[in-house]
Amino acid sequence: MLIRVALSIALAALLSASGRAQTVPAAAPASAPAPTWAVPDPDTLPDDAFGRTVRRGRDLIVKTSSLIGPDAPDPTMRYSGNGLDCQSCHLQAGTQRFGLPLAGIWGVFPLYIARENEVRTLEERINGCMERSMNGRALPVGGSEMKAMLSYIKFISSAERVGKPLDGRGAPPLPLPEKAGDPRHGLEVFTATCAACHGADGQGQRLAPAAAKDAGRRYLFPPLWGPDSFNDGAGMARGITAAQFVHANMPLGTTFEAPALSVSDAFDVVAYVGAQPRPHKSGLEADFPDRSRKPVDATYPPFIGPFSAEQHRLGPWPPIQAWMKANGAAARSAD
Predict the structure, then answer these.
(1) Least packed by Cβ within 10 Å: which of 15, 54, 196, 229?
(2) How does pLDDT run across 193-239, given as a tens digit for each residue?
């Protein structure tokens, strides 16, 4: 499947006093070891109301398509509109470091979100995924499913401090290429690296009915485009976001410490996947009301500045970034 929040801390101390000799700084301390990535296990919780609710939340992340998606037995519970599960992007039920984890996001919300140009709650952010990545409709904010998801996210985020996410949130940033992504070379990368799981046609590996019922999932490996995949308003439809995720996590089993693809290949394969058809979300023109905050790799209009839609989709993005930095006020006021 097709997003590094790296924390850098610099400490310096200098003591001086007027009329006295300057104090000699102490030797710099040794670098602190990298934080341990440890996520608590919901199965360790007791069989009480909270434990059951947390585990229900985990099930909703892992078995989205069968519980609140198109395969839910009750048609009124079909909130998700495609065959993906939340863990199609939030790997290992949202617990994998730099695999777009849900672990570590509890304490950073409410949070300003540029797409709506307002502060949003975690419930609103989840429903943004429901409407875009899941190509469906919003969950009731006070419903049992939302409460279960929130309980699960809070539990697996327990190692973080409020306002400071765990190291490992999102996906590691990549240096942006100075050239456009190459979809033709991306097809070669896809064929050699991705097709074994996602299929030559990108439609994934759908489970047989009996196996899908047992697993609670529609796909063994998800489709990357087509009607059962995310729509064009999803974050994964953006080239930079998707390339970061792919480089750190794909093929499945890859880790950010030992990526399987080069940076260039990651951008090229994303250029190929991004050129394929997928569902369209209406109303995208209302996204990013402050146009100066619109990501340079957003693939839908309105576009600001003298750059083509193709350059927003494929890059190179540094010239767009430079223009936006120089013309932020004009972009902010543009209709």
Answers:
(1) 15
(2) 999 999 999 999 999 999 999 999 999 999 999 999 999 999 999 99
| C-alpha closest to that of 243 among 186, 318, 159, 319 | 186
Q: How many domains does the chain have?
A: 2
Calpha distance 100→95 (Å, rounded): 8
234 and 270 co-located in one domain? yes
Last residue of a domain, one of 220, 239, 274: 274
Residue 137 resides in a domain: yes
Looking at 102, 137, 156, the residue that finishes a domain is 156
Shared domain for 126 and 76, answered yes or no, is: yes
Rounded distance between C-alpha atoms, residue 228 and residue 226, angstroms: 6
Could you tell me which residues come within 8 angstroms of residue 191 by beta carbon, excluding any fewer than 6 positions away? Answer: 200
Q: How many residues can be counted in the chain?
A: 335
In this structure, what token pair is assigned to residue 275? 């050129």
67-104: pLDDT as tens digits: 999 999 999 999 999 999 999 999 999 999 999 999 99
Q: Other C-beta atoms within 10 Å of 156: how many?
A: 27
Tell me which long-range contacts 254-262 makes (C-beta under 8 A, separation of at least 24): 255/98, 256/4, 256/97, 256/98, 256/171, 256/172, 260/193, 261/189, 261/193
Q: How far is CA 20 from the centre of its chain?
A: 54
Nearest to 273 by CA among 309, 302, 232, 312: 232
What does R_g of the chain's alpha carbons equal in angstroms? 22
Q: Are residues 84 and 149 in the same domain?
A: yes
Residue-wise pLDDT tens digits, 148-202: 999 999 999 988 776 666 678 889 999 999 999 999 999 999 999 999 999 999 9
Residue at 246 is within a domain? yes
List the domain range (segments joined by +) for residue 251.
Answer: 183-274
